[in-house]
């Protein structure tokens, strides 16, 4: 499914206008409804990551507020590289498909606040809108540890919405860090975390 319902897709949302990076004015209601749809897809990816023994972070990139162009999940353990964050993997795929992607029309939905590395990449690309779940107290690059969005450069700042289903995102992380792999047999439950997002 690449689009939301026909009724909802008749018009591009004005939320791409990004009224203010600080989010002082709420996004239009339709935008909130679409946010829910895409965040659910991001959570599906996060749950898949958890089942694969990865830090449960999932994301979805949407073009024009309705067309999913990429979705992915964290893979740092399986790929043995700290760069295999969900967002970076998707960015690479999107650029491979279309190097001239208009990032100002792209929205990112991700279950956890992007880390400093990912936030800087998103800022440099000029991604138009970022919706995330819980804050990332160790590596958050959207203001929690560092605000990559405030870096002075010519790149436009995105519209940002945070704390979307944040408790659910935290619960998934807690399951991972407690070493509880829901897809593993009980006697093979991991005792230790293997890596961190
Ligand atoms: Zn990251």
TrEMBL record:
Q: Show the GO cellular component annotation of the record.
A: cytoplasm; nucleus
For this protein, the record's CDD domains field holds: nucleoside_deaminase
Q: Tell me any Pfam family this protein matches.
A: dCMP_cyt_deam_1
List compositional bias (Acidic residues) regions by residue number. Answer: 1-10
User: What keywords appear on the UniProt entry?
Assistant: Hydrolase
Q: Where is the CMP/dCMP-type deaminase domain?
A: 33-153
**A Gene Ontology MF term for this entry?**
tRNA-specific adenosine-34 deaminase activity
Its GO biological process annotations read: tRNA wobble adenosine to inosine editing
Database matches in InterPro entries: CMP_dCMP_dom (IPR002125), Cytidine_deaminase-like (IPR016193)
Tell me the domain of life: Eukaryota
| Keyword match Cytoplasm | no
Would you tell me the protein name for this molecule?
CMP/dCMP-type deaminase domain-containing protein
| Organism (species) | Cloeon dipterum
Q: Region (Disordered): which ranges?
A: 1-30
